[in-house]
Structures are given as structure tokens and as C-alpha cells.
Amino acid sequence: TDIILDEHGDVVFELGRNDGGTVTHLRVSSKILTLASPVFKAMFTHGFAESQDLSSTAPRLIPLPDDNTRAMVLLSRILHHKVARIPKKLSLGALVDLAILSDKYDCSVPLNVYGTLWVAELMESACKGRYKELLFATYILDLPEAF
């Protein structure tokens, strides 16, 4: 599966290699990612292998075997402002996966508005047995009012 969020993107994330499912290639812009995350900024600007020879004509393939594919696609859509492809509702499991990825890449701020909306939708159902997961997600996504 190929997903292009920026046709001039200089990076292609390879996702799903370790989960035994379909490998997904996600084309993104390193510039957009560096503006949203200090982790991506370090990855793409401090001489790491991922920052070498970045080019939109020959995007750099970066395997992310440990990252949840669904969460990385959603995170990247949010960071690239692909609003039409961002769901209005999210399952609690998907929210938890996104929170974990957000924590890994230190980019909870761009998720704040969406996280607030998703948590509001999940509040009633989560109180029926999955409250700990919702509490975890609100904490990791830095949503103090919801927390």
C-alpha cells in the first residue's frame, strides 16, 4: 500500500514490516515533521542517516518497524493538515495507539484539538469499563481538562 501525503515529500516511511500484514509506504515531508516534533527535528537535521541525501525526486526510505501503521498514518495526516482524511470519531484502541506514538515523537500539541473531540465522544462508553485506557490517553496527549 502506498499513501502519499506530500507528492513532493522527501521521506517514505515503511510501516507494518513486523506485524506480518501488508507493508505500507507513507510519503511525507521531513520539513513538516521537523516543525511538529523535536524528535523528528533531531532525526532529520542532526546528521543521522535518515537526514542524508533527502530529496523529493528520490525520497529516503525509512523503516519504522515498531510503529503502529494505523497510528502513524493518522498522525502524519494530522501533521500534514489532511483534514478530509481525519476521522471525527476514533475508537479507544486507536486513540491509545495514537497517544503512544505521539509520546514517542513528542508531538502531542498538534493533536490537542482532535484529541479533545475524540475524548469527548469516548467519555461515556469508556466509563463503562475502559476508563483506565481513556485516562492514559488524556494524560499522554496532555489534555488536562479531559484528564
Give a short synopsis of this structure.
This is BTB domain-containing protein. The protein has 147 residues and is of the alpha/beta class.
Keywords:
single chain; 147 residues; alpha/beta; Potassium Channel Kv1.1, Chain A; 2 domains; four-stranded mixed sheet; 6 helices; elongated; BTB/POZ_dom; SKP1/BTB/POZ_sf; BTB domain-containing protein
Notes on the protein architecture:
The protein is of the alpha/beta class. It has two domains: 1-67, Potassium Channel Kv1.1, Chain A (2-Layer Sandwich), CATH 3.30.710; 87-146, no CATH class. The protein is 44% helix and 12% strand. The chain contains six helices and four strands. The chain has helices at residues 30-36, 38-45, 69-79, 92-105, 112-126, 131-140; strands spanning 2-4, 11-15, 24-28, 60-63. Strands 1-3-2-4 form a four-stranded mixed beta sheet. A hairpin with an 8-residue loop joins strand 2 and strand 3. The longest helix has 15 residues, at 112-126. It is elongated. The N and C termini lie far apart (36 Å). The mean pLDDT is 90.
What is the topology?
Layout: E1 2-4, E2 11-15, E3 24-28, H1 30-36, H2 38-45, E4 60-63, H3 69-79, H4 92-105, H5 112-126, H6 131-140
Parallel strand pairs: 1-3, 2-4
Antiparallel strand pairs: 2-3
Helix pairs in contact: 1-2, 3-4, 4-6, 5-6
Number of strands: 4
Largest sheet: 4 strands, mixed
Please tell me the CATH architecture of the largest domain by its name.
Answer: 2-Layer Sandwich
Mean pLDDT over the full residue set = 90
Strand content: 5-15%
DSSP helix fraction: 40-55%
Low-confidence residue ranges: none
Reported by name, the CATH topology of the largest domain is: Potassium Channel Kv1.1, Chain A
What gap, in angstroms, lies between the N and C termini? 36 Å
Element-by-element helix/strand order: EEEHHEHHHH
Name of the top-level CATH class of the largest domain: Alpha Beta
Count the domains. Answer: 2
CA-based gyration radius: 16 Å
CATH superfamily membership of the largest domain, which one?
A: Potassium Channel Kv1.1, Chain A
Structural class: alpha/beta
